[in-house]
Amino acid sequence: MIADVLSDATARMHKAVEVAKEDFATVRTGRANPQLFQKISVSYYGTPTPLAQLASLNNPEARTLVVTPYDKSALKDIEQAIRDMPNLGANPTNDGSIIRVTLPELTEERRKEFVKLVRAKAEDARVSVRNIRRKAKDDLDSLKGEVGDDEVARAEKELEQITKTNVDAIDEALKRKEAELLEV
Predict the structure, then answer these.
(1) Rounded to an integer, what distance in angstroms lies between the CA atom of residue 117 and that of residue 84?
(2) Rounded to the nearest 5 degrees, what angle is found at the Cα of 111, between the Cα atoms of 64 and 172?
(3) Each residue of 124-155: pLDDT tens digit?
(4) Tens of pLDDT along 91-129?
């Protein structure tokens, strides 16, 4: 039972770290990257649909991204979704069959704003990991009557180690992203 609680907590914490890394990827640096558009949701026939399911994305130049919709009727909706995306600062242009998105040069001020944004995302991820730890600790405490106190104490120490490992992984990803953002 203790092993089940620990393995569930470990899996959920790893998922939280992966989500944090995906969130970091959506914050732009100096280069255009298709991952920036990962979280864009387009209203396609009234249903929110991920952009990756509606169009192919490629970047022919460092600051340009070309979006080629599979269905040309979704062109306007895709263009609007890109324009409405916060923290992107891009202005898409459409020539009737593709959408070109040119990302503006990042100013130092804008880079610092992005660093703050990434730090906030990292803190959200840390909170998520701590919430998973709290729930796992509650589950372990509820097992105290069924298994020995020593086993529960050992499991709690292991849970703390797992939590520390995952928080460190988030901090390491944050440090890499900050360095990438501040690099001119």
Answers:
(1) 18
(2) 100
(3) 999 999 999 999 999 998 888 888 888 889 99
(4) 888 888 899 988 777 788 888 888 998 999 999 999 999
Q: Round the average pLDDT of the chain to a whole number and report it.
A: 88
Residue type, 2: I
Distance separating alpha carbons of residues 171 and 36, to the nearest angstrom: 21
Say how far apart CA 130 and CA 142 lie, in whole Å.
18
Residues in the chain: 184
170: pLDDT confidence band, cut at 50, 70 and 90? very high
Residue 69: the pLDDT is 92
**Residue written as tokens 């020539």?**
95
* Residue 73 to residue 55: CA distance in whole angstroms: 12
Q: What are the phi and psi torsion angles at 159 (to 5°)?
A: -60, -40
Nearest of 22, 49, 3 to residue 121 by alpha carbon: 22
38 near 26, Cβ under 8 Å?
yes
DSSP H or E segment with residue 43: strand 41-44
CA distance 65 to 67: 7
Q: What CA–CA distance (Å, rounded) separates 38 from 14?
A: 20
Q: Which of 99, 93, 122 is nearest to 181 (CA)?
A: 122
